[in-house]
Write a structure and sequence with these properties.
Layout: E1 4-5, E2 12-13, E3 18-19, H1 29-41, E4 46-48, H2 58-65, E5 74-79, E6 82-83, H3 88-103, H4 108-116, E7 119-120, H5 126-140, E8 145-150, H6 161-172, E9 176-182, H7 185-194, E10 199-205, H8 212-220, E11 226-230, H9 239-251, H10 257-263, H11 268-280, E12 287-289, H12 295-306, H13 312-327
Parallel strand pairs: 3-4, 4-5, 5-8, 8-9, 9-10, 10-11, 11-12
Antiparallel strand pairs: 1-2, 6-7
Length: 328
């Protein structure tokens, strides 16, 4: 995949990143390592993790995988959500939950609700910043991360001058290259409009169920901040809904025959092509970061970004059609 400049950060990577939320979460160690290996072989070099991912263990697995490859990779991690301490009993329960999910995919929503009790969100204090960053560096096996995001941050963090000053200091100390905000699009819009320092990267959900970020954020991005879209497929439970929405467009008459023929039967390849390019093409968004554990999904996503079947004008038409579906 072709590498691009990631905003004004100077970082370079393909426009497709690897979301690590599922590592040692809904997938076990063997499957997680297989996914990382496939992603690396396919040219992915941006890895997005967090202190809370994998019940606190995702970073360690990623760090182990990247040993000897660190200088070729961009690592983003986050702080602000603390994982619960993992006991032997919780590890057994986690393995049981994975088995349940494999047998009954519809159990995903129920398991998500149960997993929510394993975390403490909204932890944006100076002690948590220091402790979380040091723990992240230790688990990742590195002395710096390329990006540190405030995780699921509310707008109120933009008023925490002591925290923003502390973030600037960890950049000066060389432990973090760039600081960013991971939040809802409306919070990101405020940060971009006010050009809050030292925030030079923004991460936000963007998918076919909410494309507002493709319309608003680039216009506010006067500073050239790195813009990264996560949850591009809307999450595991919504992949089928994505396919249904695109199939409805393929079966209707709102689009040209040429576009409808390209949509055809919406398989994984077509789904990835539309979803990722609607987010990335001509929007000012630099990166899409899905969580992708299957080799077939990883390869479909890579092909979508590197060799799309759709012209830019067709992607613009599909984007507008998807927005129209939302308001109709």
């Amino acid at each position: 995949m072709q590498q691009i400049e990631l905003g004004s950060t100077g970082l370079r990577a393909p426009a497709l990143g690897f979301g690590c939320a599922a590592l040692l979460g809904r997938t076990g160690k063997r499957e997680s390592l297989q996914a990382l290996s496939t992603a690396w072989d396919e040219g992915i070099r941006f890895f997005d993790t967090a202190r809370s991912y994998g019940y606190g263990e995702s970073e360690a697995l990623l760090g182990s995988f990247l040993k000897g490859r660190r200088q070729q990779a961009n690592i983003a991690t986050k702080f602000g959500i603390l994982p619960a301490r993992q006991t032997a009993l919780k590890r057994v329960a986690k393995a049981g939950a994975r088995a349940l999910l494999a047998a009954v995919p519809r159990a995903h929503a129920l398991l998500q609700k149960r997993a929510a009790g394993q975390f403490t969100a909204g932890q944006f204090t100076l002690p948590v910043l220091r402790q979380s960053l040091e723990e992240s560096l230790r688990k990742l096996g590195t002395d710096y991360v390329d990006l540190l995001f405030l995780h699921a941050a509310p707008a109120s963090v933009l008023e925490q001058e002591d925290l923003l000053d502390a973030l600037a200091r960890v950049v000066e100390a060389g432990k973090v290259r760039f600081v960013g905000l991971s939040a809802e699009p409306e919070v990101v819009a405020v940060a971009l409009d006010r050009q809050i320092r030292p925030l030079s990267a923004m991460q936000f959900p963007c998918n076919v169920f909410d494309l507002s970020a493709t319309e608003n954020l680039a216009l506010l991005n006067r500073s050239g901040a790195l813009l990264a879209a996560n949850h591009p497929f809307g999450g595991v439970a919504r992949v089928r809904q994505c396919q249904t929405r695109l199939q409805a467009l393929a079966a209707g008459n709102a689009l040209s025959l040429e576009i409808r023929e390209k949509l055809g039967v919406v398989d994984d390849a077509v789904l990835a092509d539309v979803v990722l390019n609607v987010i990335l093409r001509d929007t000012g968004i630099h990166l899409a970061i899905p969580a992708m554990m299957r080799a077939s999904h990883i390869r479909a996503n890579v092909r979508a970004v590197s060799n799309s079947r759709f012209q830019s004008s067709e992607i613009a038409t599909l984007r507008q059609a998807l927005v129209s579906q939302l308001v109709s």
